[in-house]
Amino acid sequence: MLKRVLGLLVVANLVASCAAKPPPVSESPWVEAWRNASRESTPFSWREHDRWTFEVRGPEGEDLGLISLELTDEPIMSCSTNAAYKARLIESTTTIAPLETWYDGEYAITYPAYEIRGRTLFLTLNATVCDANYNLAGFLSDDGGEGVVQGEGLAWYEDIGTFEARRYEEPSE
User: Fold this and answer.
1) Which end of the chain is more exposed for a tag (fewer CB within 10 A), N or C?
2) What is the mean pLDDT of residues 84-89?
3) Considering the domain 41-167, what is its CATH architecture?
């Protein structure tokens, strides 16, 4: 009896696996562009662990402030990416998240982290928070970059806007 039941289960499994499968979901042009850009060579200017300013704009082009970071070669664990490196906040005027509060010295609750693959950048502003992230994802050029700013969590997602990246310039005195 047991052999008969097991035999029926095997046949049922074979029939189910041969059933018509839905066609694969087509990828968006953005996903294809990301995949292609990640296979290209990283621009030399982004290979150096340097300082960058990210100018954030809202959906209507409104100014949401600046985030200036120093990209380090210090590997860290991140909830959002597999091969992350720590970034250090230089200054921020952004209104999308309370970065100074998050990164405040000995009371820091999180820090930014980044991953660069080819000509792509994935930057999470709160690397150690695993269910509510603020991310910048975009494409790199020889002298900067541009992309999208998004917030996401367990039960929410928000298109915050876009960013443009340029080399950080020390404030003039």
Assistant:
1) C
2) 89
3) Beta Barrel (2.40)
